[in-house]
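Fold this sequence, please.
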Amino acid sequence: MKFTNERISNADREKYQAMGVNFGIARYWAINQDRDIFVNKTVNYREEPPDSPPYILNNWLYFYRGKVMEFSSCIYLRDDKEHKIKEDTFILRYIIASTIPNEEKEESFSVLKEALRIHGICGFPSKTEPTDFIFEF
């Protein structure tokens, strides 16, 4: 089964909350029920600094096979010529907290990219999906 965008059902919310997952006010997620993996956005806001292109900042909750990672990202809304970053590039800025072991990080990041491409209501412009991913720490 592939990732799908869904409204978080009360049954799923209760199931994951019983495992200690805090959804906050999130109502939607990209989930792969077969693999027990999901991602949802917990915070979203826009920045328009005077010396760089505008971007959207998001905080995320990523549940990967019983482990949780919270991280922060940004997506540039225009090309940033100074830093050579194209519009719609997804940048994972930093990990807030994670229980994913280092030996599983590479595979989990690959799956995360798959989930983020599907998560259409995640702050990506509706006309497009991220063209590139940059995971920087």
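Helices lie at 10-18, 102-118. Residues 122-128 have pLDDT under 50 and may be disordered.
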